[in-house]
Design goal:
heterodimer, A: mainly alpha, MetI-like fold, globular, B: mainly alpha, two-stranded antiparallel ribbon, 13 helices, about 0% strand
């Protein structure tokens, strides 16, 4: 009863939603429309909203204009996957420690991790460049993976910790009583129970890793074959004759992997990310 | 193994990693900020870099611009996020779909979204300029990113676009977490929708609003890619915020010392923010009786 709206209110809500979603989706719509227009049409003046020569030609031409496009997309997925795997290796034990154990400097060290969240790699580029050079990692995949991991560890710990806290302690205690070691308990009791949480954190980290590739790629990597999609496409904007329709097609195809992952897992992801925002 | 040792052992790898990749470079940045450093070598100059910055009118402008950028962008994100979350929380058919449709700007790489905006802002083939022309607002093509003022506000719109989904998502989650009994009790007493929103929803989600305000402030302050791809800080520095200025100085012009001094100032400002954040969050939680 309380939630019943009048017809006028419903119309108002939909109208407002339409405006809101137009703002959110307009760039995607425009990118898609641009990708359908033949190149000579793009530069036609005055502006035309509709034309009758739309085609999907750009989607096949782009592989020739941007010969490395497939490679860029692969690089993006590969770097994001590697970052996610490495991040989880660091995050899982630490998150467990913060969720369950009592040890010296617990809150101080957690504060340090969260402090990392405060600034971005852009502030540390010069020394980071030197560190990566010393380690011999410049112009390799590592140059984009290592800094990516560092800046995702804090978020990962934070998210996973709140998930692990919700797993009942009794199960672990039962394992202890049976004489299991701490490491065994973590591996065989806690982790299997935490799989849904691990998936949420993993996907969140993956999306973060997919999104943050640009800065590290343009700064630490000069090798074109290793460039992730955002950096690879960015290079093309500077060219004299940008084939915009193909650029847009490439950009849309390039975000497909991460969009698909998101669509499949969005329900869990949203619930997991916002767990902290909901009072229990 | 004792619990203490085990705990320390478990966090050690992550701590070590952060130490090498974040803490050590941070210390290096502080050291470099006292140096005149470039590709050639380093020379200790004391506080000269900071002195130059504080005396520079240009840098002063950059700081104000950054705060203005942050204030405007965060305010818009919060207002739009609140409106969006309220709409998505309304019990109308199709809301599950709408909730998914809000997320793409957050999911895709920022750089890719910016390529889309680059196109929208184009005077000749962008839909915005096209619409303005056909409505007769402007006579000719309008290049949004070519004029100081419009470039600044265009960059803000894009920054808001990138940030709004996350804010909306968190507000929505918080709204869904508000106890329904409160609404029902108010409804029985004859309270209207607006009254319930003002007196129940807003106070109940206040801790989340404050959290998002300060987190957004930090993200917006650090926002680099959006400005870099849209304008590279131009035209004539109109969109140069602190972070862009730092990047241009250090990476673009190889002035490592001066760049580092800027970076240190950013870190100090962000540190102050965070203290403010913790202070306010504590107050708000106390005031609204959250845990």
């Amino acid at each position: 009863m309380m939630d019943r709206y009048t017809k006028l209110q419903i119309v108002g809500i939909y109208a407002a939603l339409a405006v809101f979603l137009t703002f959110i989706l307009l760039p995607f719509f425009e990118m898609f429309m641009a990708s359908l227009r033949p190149l000579e049409h793009l530069f036609r003046s005055p502006y035309q909203f509709w034309s009758d020569d739309f085609s999907f030609q750009a989607y096949s031409d782009m592989w020739e204009t941007v010969p490395l496009l497939g490679r860029y997309i692969f690089n993006s997925v590969f770097i994001a996957t590697a970052v996610t795997a490495m991040t989880m290796i660091f995050v899982i034990p630490a998150a467990y420690a913060y969720a369950r154990l009592d040890f010296p400097f617990k809150s101080a060290s957690l504060g340090v991790f969260l402090g990392v969240n405060m600034f971005t790699g852009a502030v540390l580029l010069i020394p980071l460049y030197r560190v990566l050079r010393t380690l011999g990692m410049l112009n390799t995949y590592w140059a984009m993976i290592i800094p990516g991991v560092a800046f995702l560890i804090p978020t990962g710990i934070w998210l996973l910790r709140s998930y692990l806290e919700k797993i009942p302690r009794e199960l672990e205690e039962a394992a202890f009583v049976d004489g299991a070691s701490r490491l065994y308990t973590l591996r065989r009791v806690v982790l299997p129970l935490a799989v849904p949480g691990l998936i949420v954190v993993g996907v969140a980290v993956f999306i973060g890793a997919y999104a943050q590739q640009f800065l590290f790629a343009i700064t630490f990597n000069q090798q074109r074959e290793l460039q992730p999609l955002p950096a690879g496409l960015y290079e093309f904007i500077g060219y004299q004759d940008v084939t915009w329709n193909q650029m847009m097609a490439a950009a849309l195809v390039g975000v497909l992997p991460v969009m698909l992952i998101f669509l499949f897992l969005q329900k869990y992801l949203v619930a997991g990310l916002t767990a902290g925002a909901v009072k229990e | 193994m004792s619990e203490k040792t085990f705990g320390l052992l478990l966090i050690a790898p992550a701590m070590l990693f952060i130490a090498v990749i974040v803490a050590w470079p941070l210390a290096e940045t502080i050291r470099l900020s006292f140096m005149e450093a470039g590709l050639g070598g380093e020379e200790y100059v004391g506080l000269a870099n900071y002195q130059d910055l504080l005396e520079s009118r240009k840098f002063n402008d950059t700081i104000w611009r950054t705060f203005y950028w942050m204030f405007l962008s965060v305010t818009l994100k919060l207002i739009l996020g609140l409106i969006g979350a309220t709409l998505l929380n309304a019990a109308v058919p199709g809301r599950a779909l709408f909730r998914v449709l809000v997320m793409p700007p957050w999911v895709i790489p920022i750089a890719i979204g910016c390529i889309g905006w680059l196109w929208l802002y184009n005077g000749y083939f962008g839909v915005l300029s096209g619409t303005m022309m056909s409505l007769g607002i402007t006579d000719g093509p309008f290049e949004f990113l070519a004029h100081k003022r419009s470039a600044f506000y265009s960059a803000i719109v894009t920054d808001v676009w990138v940030g709004v989904p996350m804010v909306t998502l968190f507000f929505l989650a918080a709204m869904q977490g508000v106890n329904r009994d409160l609404y029902e009790a108010a409804w029985v007493d004859g309270a209207g929708r607006w009254y319930r929103f003002r007196r129940i929803t807003i106070p109940q989600i206040m801790p989340v609003i404050v959290s998002m305000a300060l987190l957004s402030a930090i993200w917006t302050f650090n926002s680099f890619e959006i400005i870099w791809i849209l304008t590279e800080g131009g035209p004539r520095s109109a969109t140069t915020t602190l972070i862009v200025d730092t990047y241009k100085t250090a990476i673009g012009n190889y002035k490592f010392g001066e760049g580092s001094a800027r970076a240190v100032i950013i870190v100090v400002l962000l540190g102050l923010f965070s203290l403010l954040y913790l202070f306010f969050l504590g107050k708000v939680n106390k005031y609204y009786g959250a845990k």
